[in-house]
Amino acid sequence: MKIKYFGLFLFVSIVQLLVAQEELTIESCLSNALSYNPLQKQKEYFNSIQTYQTKNANKSWLPQVNIIGQATYQNKTIELPIKLPGLNIETPSKDQYKVYADIQQNIYDGGLIAAQKNAIQIQSAADTKRVDNELYKIKEKIIQLYFNALFIDNQIEQSKIVEKDLMALAEKVKAATQNGVSSKYNEAVVGVEIEKLHQKQMELSSTKSSIIQSLNKLTNKQYADNVRFTNPTFVQTISKEIKRSEIELLQIQQLQLNNLSEIANRKTLPKLGAFGQVGYGRPGLNQLSNAFEGYAIGGLRLAWNLSSLYTFHNEKEAIQLQSKSVDAQKEAFLLLTETAINNQIVEIEKYKNLSESDNQIILLRKKIKEASKAMLDNGVYTYQDYLKDLDAEDAAKTTKALHDIQLIQSNYLLQLQLGNL
User: Fold this and answer.
1) Cα dihedral sign, 243-245-247-253
2) Which of 61, 149, 221, 264 could bond to 211 as cystine, CB 3.0-4.6 Å?
């Protein structure tokens, strides 16, 4: 029994250790969010739709069969203009009936079916790219949440360092008070700073928990509140080539317009097909017979729809204007995107410079704190003054951490705007 409980205790301990060591990367967050997002299902649907529509287009090469029933009445029928002795030819009935199968077999369609199949494929590609455009917003949201959490993690770690300094100071003040060289006032001053720090830690933990809940919802994962967000590596951007899915969609739209132009051309070409009729009625093929009988007829048919030429020129002109409209959309998108990219590059340089300046400020703040502590130990400085210098150093480190994270975040946003994520 003791072995059983020991094994259970060991298992729980290992699980807790694994949970405590859980780390999260921005790459895994992006990958999980994109793969889980319901919009991804649309891509599967589009592929299935394309398959069904292509199969239907191929069936246009199968014989097209119509079953037709017809009953008519006419006021006059065929009559011979002469009468022959000894020959009695019955006049056909004015009411006539027939049921027949009309069969049409496409032989040459001018390439129209092939152009329609190409249109199906291009439409599927366009629908898929529209999904990628929508997923851009998801990527942007994940980047924002991740770097917010990363900053919170940094602040939590920094608060632990400050807490350690404050706790050491509190012990020192308590000992000094017991020895009669300090007062309860100073203990209260330090105690207030410790409580304020604890409040800050609670706020940071609550904010991190909220971010993790959002990430859990977007990624369909269950990250614990103590998960550690790893600091991404800063990657220097070499190429500024824009590879956004929006541009790819506009290029696909141009392909669609080219395909529409091709379909318009194909509609003006003659079509060749075979046809046949198999039926039963009165009369059959013998118009002078008044009996019900079966019949069959077949042959070739060449058809040229000249009326398609009426609208051909207007269709072409409309397609050209649509093509120019797509080009204008592309130019507008590139203009806005290039402006945003240039702004992001300026932001990166700004945070680089700020981070270097932060290093100098932290170095000076550390010297000020050390001098302040020395003056406090010599009795020429108050605890309030020392706490201000301690808080100023903490604020400088916080600012440094913020600028470092903003630098990496700006780089990721630049990669996103370029279409590299």
Assistant:
1) positive
2) 149
What span, in angstroms and rounded, lies between the C-alpha atoms of 194 and 167?
8
What are the tokens at 297?
């007829």
Question: Both tokens of residue 1?
Answer: 């029994």
- Report whether 390 contacts 371 (CB < 8 A): no
Taken in order 200, 206, 212, 214, the sign of the CA dihedral is: negative
For the segment 99-148, what is each residue's pLDDT rounded down to a tens digit? Answer: 999 999 999 999 999 999 999 999 999 999 999 999 999 999 999 999 99
Identity at 30, one-letter amino acid code: L
What is the residue type of 19?
V
The reported pTM is 0.80
Which of 88, 158, 139 has its CA nearest to residue 409?
139
- Residues 6+ away with beta carbon under 8 Å from 84: none
Kindly report, residue by residue over 278-288, the tens digit of the pLDDT. Answer: 999 988 888 87
How many CA atoms within 13 Å lie on the side-chain side of 344? Answer: 20
- The three-class DSSP label of residue 101 is strand
CA angle 117, 121, 123 (to 5 degrees): 115
